[in-house]
Amino acid sequence: MTSTQTLRFEAPDQGEETARADLYGLLASLFYAPASKDLIDRIAASGQDGDGVLEQAWSGLVDACKRASADEVRDEYESLFIGVGKPDVMLYGSYYLSGFLMEKPLAALRDDLGKLGLQRDEAVPESEDHIATLCEVMRYLIASDDSLHANVATQKNFFATHIQPWADTMCEAVIQHPAARFHASVARLASAFFAVEAQAFDMA
After folding, report:
1. Is the domain 16-203 a CATH 1.10.10.60 member?
2. Would 142 disulfide with which of 21, 82, 187, 193, CB 3.0-4.6 Å?
3. Is residue 76 a contact partner of residue 179, using CB atoms and an 8 Å limit?
4. Residue 7: what pLDDT?
């Protein structure tokens, strides 16, 4: 399991499920590490069609990419999510669910990942409750050919248990941070997408 894979997210003929998986993959990349110049340029060159909430959030990210440099994005990422000592904004579910890192929510997540046959890559330093890893798991559950694990019921349960209870609070923390410019647009896209996912799962 990895959180760094950048996926195709702008092919015009892709189906809805592929588009969902690709957007989860993109969010995983943007939250896992500072966006590369190549990724910034690819997003900046993307279309901005539609006037829905999700489309508006995507347009906001496209505009942010048109204005940003890779050096600025890296500095902002390090300031927000790494820093010296405690980061200004945490990206870990356990922190929002229990107030501390490496707590019971992480243990429960590891149990559920084990049931799905997934485990953290030892090369990845972040714990499994990092938002990037959770987005990558959702990408897998949507895109995998494993019908036993990758199905709508499993997606719904994983999302409702491990993302929905805290991700919007995290996104709001990013959006409200005075130093967040580029990553505020990332958080707005994530928040809009998670809201769409929640609504779709409610109807499933």
Report:
1. no
2. 21
3. yes
4. 34
Tell me the Ramachandran region of residue 8: left when phi exceeds 0, alpha when psi lies from -120 to 50, beta otherwise.
beta
Report the candidate in 168, 188, 163 with the shortest Cα–Cα distance to residue 54: 188
List CB contacts of 160: < 8 A, sequence separation 6 or more. Answer: 198, 201
189 conformational bin, left if phi > 0, alpha if psi -120 to 50, beta if neither: alpha
Domain positions in the chain are 16-203
- pTM, two decimal places: 0.90
Q: Reduce the DSSP state of residue 101 to 3 states and report it.
A: coil
CA 180-75-171 angle, to 5 degrees, is 30
Query: For residue 189, how many other CB atoms are within 10 A of its CB?
Result: 24
- Residue 92 forms beta bridges with which residues? 130
User: What does the pLDDT look like over 146-169, one tens digit per residue?
Assistant: 877 778 999 999 999 999 999 999
| Strand, coil or helix: 2 | coil
| CA distance linking residue 125 with residue 38, whole number of Å | 24
Helix or strand run (H / E) with residue 55? helix 53-67
Helix axes 152-162, 104-115, angle to 10 degrees: 170
